[in-house]
Write a structure and sequence with these properties.
About 40% of the residues lie in helices and about 15% in strands. By secondary structure, the protein is of the alpha/beta class. Helix 1 packs antiparallel against helix 3 and helix 1 packs across helix 10.
């Protein structure tokens, strides 16, 4: 297939839920839909950077589904300064993944999005080492120490631009396909009759993320908002659970269903 328009992916934040992005890319690859640009925030930056650098779906799936021990060890480096986990231990892990690769080494143009703690504004990262960019984009406040880049403390991009569709558009995309993993208008697990302080806090945080994401999709041509992802909120499910493959499959199946709409937007002609 040949696109007559350029496709940009805006891969949203979402922690463990970011495995959905892998399935979505799997669908695009198997249907021979070229990806021209990728922008990513937090989990979206991890998946986006990996695929943009290696353009190897098998390698990406192996990375996200395996190496759990190494990922857990990177989190077990306690700090009691500006975050619970030391930034240097986490950075060493990302260097083991991306090596010394920079944005100049990418096979697909990619931008990562973080949040500048001083200005409160999104920080679009498009130069330098990929490992550093990914770490900045997914530095969850209070959990991970801020990542210092050019003298500025950067934290997770979900605070300012959780679905970076505007970034994909500015990169040159004619059609922006966005994935919002924070679609929490409903939460079937929340029981008003059994509310604890923790449950109220978590549900409030989910609503806040949903509200921010709704303001972050103004440049989207096709929006994917998978429902029911609250069951994938716990990192325990990632490290010891059995839902990794099901989440990737959900991403693939969802994109398969939306493929006719995407093809129409791209003005795709079949040349096979």
């Amino acid at each position: 297939m040949a696109n007559t328009k350029k496709l940009g992916l805006a891969l949203g934040s979402g922690a463990f839920k970011g495995l959905f992005h892998v399935g979505l890319i799997r669908s695009l690859v198997k249907n021979h839909i070229p990806i021209d640009y990728i922008s990513g925030t937090s989990a979206g930056a991890i998946v986006g950077a990996h695929y943009a650098l290696f353009q190897d779906l098998d390698r990406l799936e192996n990375f996200v589904t395996n190496h759990k021990y190494e990922k857990l060890m990177a989190l077990l480096a306690p700090s009691f300064r500006s975050g619970l986990v030391k930034s240097d231990k986490m950075y060493a892990f990302w260097k083991s993944v991306f090596g010394q690769a920079t944005f100049n080494d990418l096979k697909i143009p990619f931008n990562a999005v973080a949040t500048d703690l001083l200005s409160g504004q999104p920080e679009v990262i498009k130069v330098g080492y990929l490992a550093k960019a990914v770490q900045a984009s997914m530095s969850i406040p209070t959990l991970l120490e801020p990542t210092i880049m050019n003298g500025r403390p950067l934290v997770d991009g979900f605070l300012s631009n959780p679905v970076p569709d505007d970034v994909a558009k500015k990169m040159g995309a004619d059609v922006v396909l966005s994935v919002n993993l924070d679609n929490y208008e409903r939460h079937d697990d929340f029981d008003p009759g059994k509310m604890s302080m923790l449950q109220v806090s978590l549900r409030s945080f989910e609503i806040m993320r949903h509200s921010i994401a709704k303001h972050s999709i103004q440049n989207t041509d096709l929006l994917i908002e998978p429902p029911g992802l609250y069951e994938y909120e716990s990192w325990q499910e990632y490290f010891v659970g059995k839902k990794v493959e099901s989440l990737i499959k959900m991403g693939e199946d969802t994109m398969d269903v939306n493929l006719p709409t995407l093809l129409k937007l791209l003005n795709v002609s079949n040349e096979r």
